[in-house]
Design goal:
Helix Hairpins; Heat Shock Protein 90; 3 domains; 56% helix
Length: 486
């Protein structure tokens, strides 16, 4: 159940809307962070460059003013040491070593004159010589053996020498790394929170739409009185539900009017036909002339055909208007077909026809038993009317996940090619047919009223084949019927 519900959630509109909204929010916040990150990085570098430019000028000025004697290296070195303790962005817990700042002075000949920092300064000197540094404009260099680059500022001395002050970008990278880590955690929290808010809000909103959809799917030929649920909120979904209910009111009123008209029409036509038939039947008892008696019997048969035509015409008209009156119950289609085959077997034997029923056990469908009974009767009547003596009718019944499958196959001449595509349309019949073209039209109407499918083909081995699929009885419908009967 959990995997099925997870799949339904992941295929829901709420999930897709939440994903797209979260994706848009994620991209937007990421773009904002990139700008903030670049701004902070540039600001930190600007502050570091300002510190380097100011300190290198101070150190250059100290080196210019200090006499070139035995105390020169000590004085300038101590000033450089003091400058290294004022490194910007330095971590408070960091040791007081001098591995993040170096001071390097070269003479006119390019030789190392003074070094203050970690190591002997040769690697830093080689890196400086490998780069073209612009005076008073800090640049980044990479020192052999050190992974983190240095930001170096230079100033020219009056004697032709140069003073270089280098600052490791380690502290700058540490600040940016901490900033990025905090932003990532904040960004991830906001993304997850935003997704959850959008998902549950959207799902709650769409749950009303799902309720409307489920209610609307139950409304049809079987239940025109049900209405979709409404809410007290005056939003678009509530207005949609109200509009649908108003439309259903109009549909129900139209169907009621149609039923009233067809009932009145049927009553007005059946009453005189029944009266005429009754008078003809009563006249049979007083008639001794065989020719006159045959004429009366023929007239009664014509009246019966007219009554049957009237009933089928009204049923097909109601079906085309989706107004067939259904009383759905759970039907054992296997048992119903078995009784119908037993009922028609004598008539078919009398016509020289054979009928076989290939059954697979109980197959339960949910529908109107009277209409299903009449549908099967029309199929068998069609076979009786059109098949020649010696033919065989085979009925197959099976069930699958798609529903109950009913197939009717004969070894006759098959359907006429010109009418095969429109067999289930009223008044369509073959050249040699003596009927009104309503039998199969009624069958198609009943199948559609039960949300089934029907198709007619000519089998490869010869003969006609009709395939019908009807929905199976669901567990919910079966339990509902059990409750109603109890």
């Amino acid at each position: 159940m959990s995997s099925r519900s997870d799949k339904s959630v992941m295929h829901s509109a709420a999930w897709r809307i939440s994903l797209w909204a979260t994706l848009a929010f994620t991209c937007g916040t990421m773009i904002v962070f990139v700008f903030i990150d670049r701004f902070v990085a540039n600001d930190i570098q600007r502050r570091s460059d300002a510190w380097l430019s100011g300190e290198v000028e101070v150190l250059g000025d100290v080196a210019e003013r200090t006499p070139d004697d035995a105390l020169y290296n000590r004085v300038v070195g101590e000033v450089a040491e003091l400058a290294s303790r004022e490194v910007p962005n330095k971590a408070p817990s960091q040791d007081d070593d001098n591995d993040s700042v170096f001071f390097l002075q070269i003479g006119k000949d390019g030789a190392l004159k003074l070094w203050v920092g970690s190591g002997d300064g040769q690697a830093q000197l080689e890196a400086i010589r490998a780069h073209t540094l612009i005076i008073e404009r800090p640049s980044s260099i990479r020192v052999r053996g050190i992974a983190i680059p240095f930001r170096v500022a230079a100033i020219a001395m009056k004697d032709g020498g140069r003073v270089y002050l280098g600052l490791s970008e380690r502290d700058e990278q540490r600040v940016l790394r901490n900033l990025r880590l905090r932003f990532f955690l904040l960004w991830l929290s906001l993304v997850l929170l935003g997704f959850a808010i959008v998902f549950f809000t959207t799902r709650r909103t769409l749950s009303h739409v799902r309720g409307i959809n489920e209610a609307a799917s139950r409304i049809g030929q079987m239940d025109l009185k049900t209405r979709v649920p409404t809410t007290q909120r005056n939003d678009e979904i509530s207005q949609l539900a109200v509009t649908l209910n108003r439309m259903l009111d109009r549909i129900e009123s139209t169907v009621i009017q149609l039923h009233t008209i067809t009932d009145s029409l049927a009553h007005d036509l059946r009453s005189p036909l029944t009266a005429i038939r009754g008078k003809l039947e009563s006249s049979i008892a007083g008639t001794r002339d065989d020719q006159q008696l045959e004429t009366i019997v023929s007239a009664i048969e014509e009246l019966d055909r007219l009554t049957d035509f009237l009933n089928k015409s009204l049923d097909v008209a109601e079906a085309k208007a989706d107004a067939l009156r259904l009383t759905p119950t759970s039907i054992d289609l296997d048992a119903l077909l078995g009784s119908m085959v037993a009922l028609y077997e004598p008539s078919m034997s009398e016509r020289g026809l054979r009928i076989r029923f290939e059954r697979r056990g109980p197959v339960r469908i949910f529908g109107d038993e009277g209409l299903i009974h009449r549908m099967i009767a029309n199929l068998f009547d069609n076979e009786l009317r059109h098949l020649s003596s010696g033919c065989t009718v085979t009925v197959y019944l099976d069930q699958s996940a798609g529903g109950a499958s009913l197939a009717l196959l004969d070894d006759g001449a098959g359907f006429d090619p010109e009418v095969k595509a429109s067999l289930f349309t009223e008044r369509i019949k073959g050249k040699e047919s003596t009927g009104h073209g309503l039998g199969l039209a009624f069958v198609g109407a009943v199948v559609r009223a039960h949300s089934g499918t029907i198709a007619a083909t000519n089998a490869e081995s010869g003969g006609a084949q009709i395939n019908i699929t009807l929905p199976l009885t669901s567990a919910e419908e079966l339990s509902h019927q059990v409750v109603m009967t109890s």
